[in-house]
């Protein structure tokens, strides 16, 4: 795990930690089951407050990126792929919603839209 | 989490100075910084915790027990490190430790020698030959060796060079790797706290201004800066203090988001450091 804390950044320190851990999980540098340092250890290493590291871990856990296993420590969570997929699905959904809104403005019927979608999908293959 | 130290309604008055209704608590496993300008009452609070001066009212509980009714027990659990530790000047450090050790049931000689070595203090060195910083380190080595659960330090970093200060802070954050241990240290050098402190208590003219998690303070307070007479101090929400210069206004708010919403693009906004907060609250013109 790599973490760089910038004191001149306008972002709070806990956010900097959350962002960096997330990006290492998404990029695959950290994989499911990898152990993370304890809240206290991380605070000592980074010379920051334990409240700050706790908040970062709570947030990462809340979003499903890490699991804390009582008495054993904190690990990169295994359901990341599903979370990532869900996230990306959301992006697709948002883009489709945009397309639908445009189509509505132009008075395009749902069936025409479906045809367009099918054509586009098949074209790609 | 149990409180390592719980202070409530503490009062002590001297001629020309009153410490009044001081309350705060330190959860176990955390570091609390006590800040305030010189003469604010920081040392008085610490002396009251140590029962070196008599409180007029209020309560001090150390790990849940009254610090006067259970004084020997309370003191055995506290490691007191103050700015001018007082030991016989002509005696070696190891002999001072031998004299102190019997008072502490959990005294650890191995830890003591290890810490001396870590701090670069020769055990045979006479106390009077130590520099100010070395005396501070020696006092901390004693506190660590008797396995204190609450380390109490009065202005430990004052008069130390940056390298020394950094070393000391690293050592303090190592203390709370054990989540039963806590640290309280007073300082007017707020940058020392900006990093490692979990909670900050700000005392001014004998009263508590705030006692809160450091992150919360740094996220809610902020500076509002506006040129010329563009913004009147009185229209800033959460105003805590301000200063006019020839070219504009600089103000501290306790609610940066509200200030940003209500003043908008007429000002620029910045995070406030603990030093800014201490400065504006203790010296800035009070709000109208």
Description:
- The complex is a heterodimer of chains A (125) and B (288).
- By secondary structure, chain A is mostly helical.
- Chain A has helices at 13-26, 39-46, 50-62, 80-105, 110-124; strands at 35-36, 66-69, 73-76.
- In chain A, a hairpin with a 3-residue loop joins strand 2 (66-69) and strand 3 (73-76).
- The longest helix of chain A is centred in the last third of the chain and has 26 residues, at 80-105.
- The model of chain A has no long low-confidence stretch (mean pLDDT 88).
- Helices cover 32% and strands 30% of the residues of chain B.
- In chain B, strand 7, helix 6 (162-175) and strand 8 (182-187) form a beta-alpha-beta unit.
- The chains are: A mainly alpha (125), B alpha/beta (288).
CATH class of the largest domain in chain A: Mainly Alpha
CATH fold assignment of the largest domain in chain B: Rossmann fold
| Secondary-structure class of chain A | mainly alpha
pLDDT < 50 runs, ≥5 residues of chain A = none
Global mean pLDDT of chain B: 91
CATH topology assignment of the largest domain in chain A? Arc Repressor Mutant, subunit A
Q: What's the tally of helices of chain A? A: 5
In short:
The complex is a heterodimer of chains A (125) and B (288). Chain A has 125 residues and is mainly alpha-helical.
